[in-house]
Write a structure and sequence with these properties.
Helix content is 37%, strand content 19%. With 226 residues, it is α/β, with parallel strands linked by helices. The strands form 2 sheets. A 6-stranded parallel beta sheet has the order 1-10-7-4-2-3. The chain has a 4-stranded mixed beta sheet with strand order 8-5-6-9, sandwiched between helices. The chain is globular. It starts with a helix and ends in a 6-residue tail after the last strand.
Length: 226
């Protein structure tokens, strides 16, 4: 990255981390994947039960491999040979995990996490259940505010995930939401029933937390995930 752009990005990272801390979320920064894995080794407790949300970031950074190392009781719903019934059971068990690992669709510079889910097991665990939630996100997830977070989901996160999951949606076929503009009166701004196979079923904005540092947000100085 150009040195000047890098300086601006670090200003945004600092601003975002300060806002997250004010919202009682523990904010951490690592420059790359190697440093992330080293940090995760200090945060995770051998033998603890770990759940996970659908996250490309965990795969790209090597965190998924760490979780499958045998050091933890990993509720691996994507393990080879897992049946749909076993997958559903593991999703529910994740609600009682010691640590839940996921990413975020967007992180605002004002200190909010914005996530939109289909099955909603991911946002459910982020909100309640696991003793601790570790959110791992690349710098590409940082946006100025919630309006930009909504646009990011419609133009980037949802289309890419629909392609990944082979969903028959408008965005998977066209590379963007049918209504990409954010309407201040309705954040998702979709007419009722407009997207029959939508994965954008529930939108969650996480702000100030009552349980201080239950949410740990690790920002990685790379572009990761969707």
């Amino acid at each position: 990255m150009n040195a000047n752009l890098d300086k601006i990005m670090h200003m945004r990272i600092k601003r975002t981390m300060q806002a997250l801390e004010k919202n009682n979320m523990k904010a951490m920064y690592v420059p790359g994947k190697e440093e992330l894995l080293a940090l995760m080794n200090t945060l995770l407790v051998p033998g603890e039960t770990i759940g996970i949300g659908g996250t490309v970031t965990a795969v790209e950074t090597g965190v998924m491999g760490l979780l499958r190392s045998g050091k933890y009781k990993f509720l691996d719903r994507e393990a080879p040979g897992i049946t749909p019934q076993e997958n559903a059971k593991l999703r529910k068990q994740a609600l009682l995990s010691d640590t839940f690992i996921t990413s975020s669709n967007a992180i605002t510079e004002t200190g909010n996490l914005y996530n939109v889910d289909g099955q909603s097991n991911r946002v459910a665990c982020m909100l309640y259940g696991p003793d601790r939630v570790i959110v791992i996100a690349g710098i590409n997830k940082i946006v100025p505010d919630l309006a930009h977070a909504v646009v990011r989901v419609k133009e980037t996160a949802a289309p890419a995930n629909c392609v990944r999951l082979d969903c028959d949606t408008f965005c998977a076929k066209n590379g963007r939401c049918m209504r990409p503009v954010c309407d201040s009166s309705d954040l998702m701004a979709l007419p009722a029933g407009a997207c029959e196979n939508s994965i954008c079923c529930n939108s969650v904005i996480m702000g100030r937390q009552r349980n201080k540092d239950r949410i740990v947000v690790i920002i990685v100085g790379e572009s990761l995930g969707y």
